[in-house]
Specification:
The relative contact order is 0.10. The chain has 10 helices and 6 strands; from the N terminus they run ααααβααββααβαββα. A 6-stranded antiparallel beta sheet has the order 3-2-1-6-5-4, with helices on both faces. The chain is an alpha+beta fold and 381 residues long. Helix 3 runs antiparallel to helix 4.
Length: 381
């Protein structure tokens, strides 16, 4: 308001000054002719107009600047308000996540017992590794397999604690190691194992064609809560090798890369994790409609999972990759995948499964370290 008055006053002063000049000039101009007076009057009028429009321009520029300042303040306020709302939502989400974690965690005595089991396993693995460094020739592969089975047994026991039923349905677990094709081809014993037990291959006439490697399963790397001792093998396990698709097959279509891997273990290995709360879906042809493998492989897979659900009474399964996800580019080693199986369907939700994986992660790391020792023993990379 003050600025408006000041500007208006400046305009009035300019007009008054012009009038004064005209009044003074009247007596002075009496000595000039008519055309000279006209020219002088026009000059005075131009001067007055110039002063008026200059004041008007200054006023408008000040108004524009004030408008821009207000817009900037409004924008800053809106950003601050949004940041405050985002911070509030982040805080509420963190509270909810914490509440979910607490709700999904097993009872305290379970956590304590699992912690003791992990501590014992970790100490055994550490002492074994130290002994192997001192006497490399004394590195016993069976001792490594025994420690791996103890780790798998601990994972089975923890999974039982997450199951909703109170009857402690038996849970089984196994480890499938990853071998690159180069390792398979240069290791006679491994190559013979793969040729004898590789299933679901895309090119039956040349089993290793279009493969980056294979996942192998041996009875020595299996465990079950139905056995009396933690390091007993699961006698239902049969040797098996599964194909891992070569990157050349899906490099042009990275968004659908997972569809080039068969379920369940190869997909868990490729993506880092895959959970099927009811594997009966794997016995239906509709499940495979987007997959990039042949109808022959699809039919073989359906028959395989029908056998799993009927003869072995496996109803749910989760596959958790060890090391980096295979389909990820960059540093890291994809060591293999752990499969955990239950005779019950829908034993866990996605949230409770995430909680299980977080709690079990230290055991995964011990098993991965044991695999490293095993690979060094067999001179594999």
């Amino acid at each position: 308001m003050f600025k408006d008055k000041l500007t208006s006053g400046a305009g009035a002063a300019s007009i008054a000054l012009g009038g004064l000049l005209i009044s003074v000039a009247t007596g002075f101009l009496a000595h000039f002719t008519g055309w000279q007076i006209a020219i002088y009057a026009a000059g005075c009028a131009a001067l007055v107009a110039q002063i008026y429009f200059r004041e008007l321009f200054i006023k408008q520029a000040a108004e524009v600047k004030e408008h821009e300042r207000r817009n900037e303040l409004d924008s800053n306020f809106a950003e601050l308000k949004q940041e405050t709302e985002d911070a509030k939502q982040s805080y509420l989400k963190s509270q909810k996540d914490l509440a979910d974690i607490i709700r999904l965690m097993p009872p305290a005595h379970t956590m304590r017992q699992f912690g003791l089991t992990y501590s014992s396993l970790h100490n055994q693995a550490r002492l074994f590794a130290v002994g192997a460094l001192k006497k490399p020739d004394a590195l016993d592969p069976e001792k490594i397999s025994s420690l791996i089975r103890q780790g798998l047994d601990a994972l089975c026991w923890l999974m039982q604690r997450y199951q909703p039923s109170a009857n402690d349905s038996p849970v089984s677990a196994n480890l499938m190691r990853f071998h690159r094709i180069t390792a398979v081809q240069k290791t006679p014993a491994l190559k013979a194992f793969v040729e004898d037990h590789l299933r679901f291959v895309p090119v039956p006439s040349d089993k290793l064609q279009n493969l980056a490697g294979v996942l192998t399963l041996e009875q020595a790397h299996s465990a079950s809560t139905r056995t009396p001792k933690p390091d007993d093998v699961d006698d239902r396990i049969s040797p098996l090798a599964l194909p891992i698709a070569d990157v050349s097959l899906y490099a042009h279509d990275p968004a659908n890369a997972i569809e080039y891997f068969i379920p369940v273990a190869p997909r868990g290995f490729a993506a880092g994790y895959q959970y099927h709360p009811d594997i009966n879906v794997l016995t239906q042809s509709d499940y495979y409609q987007n997959s990039y493998f042949s109808p022959v492989v699809r039919d073989e897979l359906i028959a395989y999972f029908v056998e799993k659900t009927t003869e072995q009474q496996i109803q749910s399964i989760v596959s958790i990759g060890l090391g980096k996800r295979f389909i990820d580019q960059g540093a890291g080693i994809p060591w293999g995948v752990i499969n955990i199986q239950s005779p019950e369907t829908n034993t866990m939700t996605e949230d409770s499964m995430a909680s299980y994986i977080d709690i079990a992660r230290p055991v995964f790391e011990v098993i991965k370290d044991l695999l490293l020792l095993h690979s060094e023993l067999n001179q594999e990379a």
